[in-house]
Amino acid sequence: MIHPNPNHSRTAAGERQAMVKRRPRTRFAATLAALASAFILGGIHHNAHAVLVNLDTTLLSGTSARLDFALLDGDGDLGNNTVTISPIVTDGTLGGDDCSVGCTGGPPFTISDAFGLGQFLQDLTLGTTVSFDLSFTTRFSGNGAPDRLSLLLLDAGSNLTLVHTSLDFSSDPVPVQDALLIVDHSPGAQIRFATVSSPALPIAVSEPGAGALFSLGLALIGGQRIRRRHPCVPHRTEAAAQARLSTPTHPHPGE
Q1: What's the domain of life for this entry (predicted)?
Q2: pLDDT at site 81
Q3: What is the sign, positive or negative, of the torsion defined by CA atoms of 73, 102, 111, 163?
Q4: Fewer CB within 10 Å: N-end or C-end of the chain?
Q5: Domain ranges of the chain
């Protein structure tokens, strides 16, 4: 007579419990890694090559304005840098745009310093917010000064500035006056944005995608908690355990 070995049953049960315990820990570690990546990305916006810009235009709501994106060559290496501007989003009203000087696309629009100047103009009636993505290269030949991107907010009728800001470098090799933000295109490029303006025009700059990664991390943690309440054993492990239980063993002597 052949008897199943009871040790096989205990071993299979132990393997199932170990699998149930190991899987949540492994997934939880991966979730924490993804969440940590989101936090790391959230702290590097000053050296990023892509940024999300948000303007608070509440005090100028209803004004007919013009966003002036200009990329000026400074190092004499024409065409070595570009800036791409994503579709502009506002709770105001977008008007016409001008992408005729060193500018292609539409939208998104890309400006280049291939002709010494690349410029994109967007007319709009301001609401309370304006936002857009900027992505840019950071090449510098080492001669002269780095190429410079500037963003100005102008009156759509007179083409004069609507705000006076702290970014006023009219005597620089690449001059700019009353800019909302500037980018000097060189390795480790820094984005400088106006900290003082009249009228007040708060500006927030961050890298796109970090918030989405953070939300994804939270969702993964939530899903992991649900799985831990209802652990499951892989089909392969269960099948292997059943196979081992049904495997005949050597008969005991005398039976």
Answers
A1: Bacteria
A2: 95
A3: positive
A4: N
A5: 47-210
